[in-house]
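Dear colleague,

Thank you for sharing your sequence with our group. We've completed the structure prediction you requested, and as agreed, I am returning the results in plain text so they can be pasted directly into your records. Please verify that the sequence below matches your submission; if there's any discrepancy, let me know and we will rerun it promptly.
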Amino acid sequence: LALRDPAEAPTVLPSSDANLPAPLQAVQLTAMGFARTLVSHLRRGVPPKWLCCETPMTQLLTVPAAHGLAVPLQAGASLRVVNTPGTQVVDTWAFPDGVDGEFLSMEHCREVLQRIVFEPGDMLVTNRYRPLLEITGDTSPGGHDTLIAACSAAMYRHAGAGDDHANCADNLAAALAGHGRSCPGTPAPWNLFMQAPVIDGH
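Please find the predicted structure tokens below.
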């Protein structure tokens, strides 16, 4: 999972605080196999407690600014991602433990589900069509984007933002490396709390 600052990503249309349902916007995911879910926070110069993750044992984890977090989940365990300000976007990845080259795949999920957005009850699959996560709850308005690529150093260079901008792709690589893992390239993320509607092909 990775957060984007809406001010830094003008194509992002996150839900506003005015639409924040009680208690907070949250998505709950249940692991079908042992997965590592990665979270990073990209906004600089703000209080660190912007994104919270709650584990099955009600352990509250906070993602600090411009860092990543890997959360291991056993099969059947759940992770609730809470968007505390209601205005951040969370790039989301998951990887089965001990299997190289396999990851949560947006393209395979869209093919299997025959939709471009997912909802509670949906089973999300890997690039090998194996079930990895089930969406077991969502108190947000939904419509989480599955099309937009993760922000990266190359993206920020292309946008004229320099070479050292914090980004989701680098945070993903760092989080994987911290657990002795790597992934060739950056898989397409599931962008929680990001709404990028497709209307008439646009």
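Summary note from our side: Confidence is low (pLDDT under 50) at residues 5-22, 41-51.

Kind regards,
the structure core
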